[in-house]
Amino acid sequence: MSSKSILVIVRHPPHGSSWVREGLEAALVGAALGQPPTILFSGDGVLALLANQQRGALGQKGSAAMLEGLSLYDVEPLWYDHLSLEARGLDVSQLMPGCQQACIADMIARHDVVMSF
Amino acid sequence: MSTLHLINRSPFSTNVLHELADAVSEGDHILLIEDGVYAAFGAPCWTLPEGISLWALQEDCASRGVTPSSVTWGTMDMAGFVALTASTHRTVSWF
Amino acid sequence: MTQNTDTLTLADGTEIALDSDGHLQNLNNWSPEVAQQMAEREGRVLTPAHWEVIELLRDFYTRFEMAPAMRALVKTARQQLGEEKGTSLYLMSLFPESPARVAARLAGLPRPTNCL
């Protein structure tokens, strides 16, 4: 079976919904099957990459700790769409380690399958 | 190697269309479905690169009383939607 | 609420609730004695080599808030315990069947994320 390249795009912010965790879990499934996908944070998704996040007010898990563990599943680096970052007045120094800049249009064009979260 | 982009939300309640503008490449198709068809009243209210085909799903336009502005938007029925899914390389949902 | 399907009884009489997969219902209830009791019920003998992996898993969970699936367990064992122990063969010899799943249970973690 020829394997298809998979792109997981995370477009929602962390904490307010479980979209980010869902996206990460999809990426982990790919990794567990020996096909680590590319993961890209775009739109409000780049907010999941902010450094210094903590648990929710009621102790709910966020996604930041999980993100730091993705490299152990060979899901790396954490790509971010640079225009989305700029549009939010942020720069890479405010993100967690392991993030790299990408352009979403190129990323989509380079993969066979795109999953959006 | 083109991409089919699906929009199912009203352009007036979301910023998704602006995100989409950075994510399309020449030769891609954008298809408005469900509440996305409200974007088809006029010219796109956001800036797109050249060479993108714009479609609105006929069934969803009909149910919402939307007549797409024919200058910009083509209409496509369900069968066309299915055919387009098959003829493009990948599909991205912008929900 | 999770159905209370099983309990462990500790030496001081404390009852610890387990879920239907034998994992702790409340992860805060873990102690080395809990791991010991679970192992005994399953007919396992815990050696220092086992404890090393159990500690590794607890550390992984504290850092990443998930239990590692096999691939990540092997990789983290290789990083923390060295090349010799960072192999699935070694981990299989300690925890036959499914190292990621069995060791997570003994370490008081939930089921590994996407352990297929």
TrEMBL record, chain A:
InterPro entries: DsrEFH-like, Sulphur_relay_DsrE/F-like, Sulphur_relay_TusC/DsrF. Coiled coil: none annotated. It comes from the Bacteria. Signal peptide: none annotated. Belongs to the DsrF/TusC family. This is Protein TusC. The lineage of its organism: Bacteria, Pseudomonadati, Pseudomonadota, Gammaproteobacteria, Oceanospirillales.
From TrEMBL, chain B:
This is Multidrug MFS transporter. Coiled coil: none annotated. InterPro entries: DsrEFH-like, Sulphur_relay_TusB/DsrH. Pfam families: DsrH (PF04077). It comes from Kushneria pakistanensis. It comes from the Bacteria.
